Amino acid sequence: MAVNLKFLALTLTTADAEQTYRFDQPATVISGPSGSGKSSLLMLLKHAVGGDAILTPAVRDHVHSVCAEVLVGDEHLALRRLIGEAGSNQVDVLDPVTLELRESFIIRAEAGQTTLSDRLLSALRFPRASIPVRREGKAAKANVTFQALFAYVYLEAIYIDTQIVRHQQTYFDGMRRALFEIIFGLTDSVLLDLKQRSAQLLTDMKTKTSEHDNVSNFLRESDSRSDDALRAELVQLREMLSLAERTLSDLRSELEESSAADAVLRQELRRAVAGARDANQEVEAASELLEARESVVAQVELDLLRLERSASAIEKLSPFDFIVCPRCMQRLEGRPVREDHCIVCLQHDPPDESVDPAAIQQTREALERQLQDAQAVREADAQVLAAARDRVQQADFLTTTLRRELDLQTRDIVAPRFDAIASSSARVASLGASIDAVTQLRDAWARARSINQEVKDLKATRTRVQADVKSRTLALAARGQLVDDLSQEFFTLLAELHLPWVQTAVIDPKTYLPVIDGNPFESLQASGGGITTCVSIAYSLALLEFGLTHPDVLVPSLLIIDSPRKALGNNPDDQERGNRIYDRFKTLADAYGDRVQLIIADNDTAPIPSDTFSTIPLDYNRPMVPGVAHPGPEHVHRAEDGYGA
Q: What is the rounded distance in angstroms from the CA atom of residue 433 to the CA atom of residue 446?
């Protein structure tokens, strides 16, 4: 049974006006001259349900938002989406009566968030599935989306005569085929999961095979020894290492025994070294003290010498009265001199006692006693220094003697063992490094074997999964008859259109695309756009009617067609063919009534008057965007020409 999907109305809001277009009849024709906004109106339907629509400059510059009133499954919803970047990734779901906001959904998937596609597919009760795809050579998954399903609903003018459900878009063709299989029940979530798992296993198997090849190439190029040879070499190296470690342990034990024997001698040597250090410190201290004593003696001798010189000068010069200066020989009688002052230096005469010979003698005797005492102390300190130096000499001699004795004792015993220990240690280290190198190579071999086993396990698992895929495919194979039945209806439709030279028409059971007289759809383009347009419309109409007559086929009940008479031509046969297309529209609308909806954009009104068709007329005086004057036919921008996205 066709899934219920229907547009009831579309409201455009600009800064100054608002316009609602209603779709009340089973079939609605949007008519008007080129550039009046027919395709733009259809694109806004696509925009409202979250699609990537092509919008003209008039729409982008003046329309603030669109609100589509839709029936989705059993739900009546109003979907509002802004125009421009502000609303590019969000659609608001409103109450269709009060227009109160119920909820908002993002359009492009983000982790952990429900998208508009999720909401609409749930309302349609359309199976939720992920299809296996390959991205950058790796297995991946792509979720079936409402926007992808809408490609089966909307025949855009730009594709109507060149593609069947955008089949030539490589990135989308896998989704197209998967959707066809879901719609017709040729696959289900179980089979899709199995195919996805099979694809992922194939990717993992290729990755592991490449990894195994890289490791194997490394082993072949880096070392020619096999794993068995490395295993035998590793056993031998470990035996040699064990022997070298025992030898090293024995040498160290012998060295410890020898060290115990000369421990007493070493202890004596340590004490002798400590005694020599103490004696040297005593010498340094005595030398410093003797230097201080010699300084005192020298100072006393200097004071005594100064006293002798002063007394001699006083004794020799005191009897003389100077009448001339003894230096410059100038006469002294005429200059004023204060009493009790020297007439030569003009200083105050010293007291008598300072020049008294007895006082000078007393001072001399005191200095002589000080000199004798200082000399006596100096001699005593000199003896202490001499004794300290003797002790240093004795300590140094003892230390030298003990060291010679220890050297003689250890030269023939300890030194050779030290050499042997060093050699054995180097041997142990070398064997350890060799064992590490062999172990690393063996680890690489083990990794290669592990990877190879993983490849085998992946192959076995994929074989089982492929068997499950085949089994599940066979279980669903009976539904392939539906494709044959669809082919028959498709051919009947084409026959009613009286296409020239068409003898056979089928739906390919592998690609689900039309094949006309044994030729694929692409080869028909040489015959003209009118032929391919008729084939494209017949294909979509056959799908729509097949879904209406088969309760287990999930074709949406809506079909939007932009320019069905595109490229048909103007001769009587072409016009008659256009009439037959509209006859088929009328037949569908009359037969199924509210169960089906056709929305058609065309330059002219329906060529066959009928109450079945409602009309939305557009022209340059009444363009699609409310409140915006159309500049005229010389300034036409058509949505199908790709203005804006």
A: 20
